[in-house]
Amino acid sequence: MHDTVFPADLDLMLNRRLGAPVEAAAYFAVAEAPANAGRHSGATRVHVTIADDGTALHITVRDDGHGGADPARGTGLLGIQRRLAAFDGELRVSSPAGGPTVLDMELPCAS
Ligand SMILES: Nc1ncnc2c1ncn2[C@@H]1O[C@H](COP(=O)(O)OP(=O)(O)OP(=O)(O)O)[C@@H](O)[C@H]1O
Ligand SMILES: [Mg+2]
């Protein structure tokens, strides 16, 4: 297993500070998901989108790798799930064989 270096794009649509616990959960998700892409996916690109709609943060991490992400096989994706669940948020994983892998995360954060 080798970490790979590849370009990452970030679209950030957020212009307020959130509560520290919410920011910590978002930080963890945005650290873990691209790290997984680098370690496991064979991707050449990863794209991160963070959008605040006023009631929830929507975070999407997509890579163009070979797929096969499975929360049952590690602690990282389960850790994201657990942190999001604390805010009634959720993680959806789409990672068919052959890719791509898309993680969709919703993190409620009404002001
Ligand atoms: N972006 C991805 N592309 C392909 N496979 C992935 C991807 N992300 C995760 N996986 C697969 O899903 C498994 C679970 O990922 P998870 O992050 O939970 O654990 P991990 O990265 O193996 O270990 P750690 O507990 O250190 O995070 C990985 O072992 C890997 O097989
Ligand atoms: Mg991981």
From TrEMBL:
GO terms for biological process: phosphorelay signal transduction system. Signal peptide: none annotated. Pfam families: HATPase_c. It catalyses: ATP + protein L-histidine = ADP + protein N-phospho-L-histidine. One of its GO terms (molecular function) is protein histidine kinase activity. The keyword Transferase applies. It comes from the Bacteria. The keyword Transferase applies. CDD domains: HATPase_UhpB-NarQ-NarX-like (cd16917). Keywords: Kinase, Transferase, Two-component regulatory system. InterPro entries: HATPase_C_sf, HATPase_dom, Sensor_HK_TwoCompSys. Its EC number is 2.7.13.3. Residues 26-108 form the Histidine kinase/HSP90-like ATPase domain. PANTHER family: NITRATE/NITRITE SENSOR PROTEIN NARX-RELATED (PTHR24421), NITRATE_NITRITE SENSOR PROTEIN NARQ (PTHR24421:SF10). This is histidine kinase. It comes from Micromonospora endolithica.
